[in-house]
Amino acid sequence: MEKLNYVLVQIPTNEGITGIGCIPVQHLNPWTIAEIIERNFKKFLVGADPLESERIWYQLYGEIHRDRKGIAFRALSAVDIAIWDIKGKALKLPLYRLLGGSRAQVPCYASGGYYGLNYGKTTKELAEEMTSFVEKGFNAIKMKVGSLTIDEDVRRVKAVRESIGDSINLIVDANNAYAVGQAIKIGRKLEKYDVYWFEEPVWVDDVRGCADVAKALDVPIAAGQNEYTRYGFRDLIENRAVDIVQPDVTVIGGISEWLKVAGMASAFNIPIAPHWDGSIGMPWDQEVHTHLAAVVPSVLRVEFFRPKVGDYPSIVDGCIPVPEKVGLGVEQPIRGMEGFRIE
Question: Do residues 210 and 297 both lie within one domain?
Fold first, then answer.
């Protein structure tokens, strides 16, 4: 089985409850995150009341705010998620109910459409992959562009649209591949294929460039999965760089900060499409963004990746059920995963 790179944080309490936060680290060093928690955060966590999550968040933020962005905020995210897990378990409520949510299911989309090993996936294979998602009940799918020429990628998008039909929402993700002029050029070509949104068209720090793309195109522009804290999203929104914001709870600073970004976006009538939360596809019900989408009406869809282990959950009319277990639904760590325990 493919090795999964995650950091698992466990915070036990004197009431016998253990909060668990899980974040993906991908290319980052998980031991650096553990070291930040041990050296910078632990002194604020031992003996603290987990119900005082806002005070704790600001204490931890005070330790790392000079860094502004980066791996330290992944550490903060993991700890904050674990604290909210404690709160849900202590009050015997699933996270979405704890936060006042009511939706029993939320819209989602299947994320795939990669180029394949050494860019070897054929256009026919790509179209078949996208169609397979539709057959599993998804009514929205996402594919990649940006690694081939503009004309080649447009042909790939055309093939997928023809394969899935006109009723399925098609999302296109460039992962910061283009300069501004290139993004506008391909965006105009993609508009004829009724793209639901065009994701991360330009370099992540080129906020003004992203604003230029958003102004030039009719297709909605989405970005923010690599952004940190409410202040990063303030810059995206104030510069009119996005039509859709994509905060990632495992990056931004945890659930506490994600909710602040959601409130800010709501004030500007900007919808949310959160980046995947790192636990979808794992054999537990810790789909944090699924809980949050059940709370925040402006969430368009949550991102769903093909499970690396286990089976697909039931997808009905393009929606995924919200977990009903208390907290985030994590009873105990998964075997074979190394965790960092705060004691």
Answer: yes
Q: Whole-prediction pTM value? A: 0.92
- Which candidate, 333, 330, 225, 318, places its Cα nearest to that of 288? 330
Residues 86 and 204 in one domain: no
Alpha-helical regions (H) of 15-94: 30-36, 42-45, 53-64, 71-90
- pLDDT over threshold 60, residue 308: no
Residue 328 makes CB contacts below 8 A (sequence gap 6+) with 20, 81, 84, 85, 88, 94, 95, 285, 286, 288, 291
Total residue length of the chain: 343
The reply to whether 1 falls in a domain is no
Total structural domains within the chain: 2
pLDDT tens figures, 264-281: 999 999 999 999 754 444
CA atoms of 266 and 200, how far apart (whole Å): 21
With beta carbons less than 8 A apart as the criterion, state whether 8 and 335 touch: no
39, containing H or E segment: none
Secondary structure tally for the chain: helices H, strands E: 12, 11
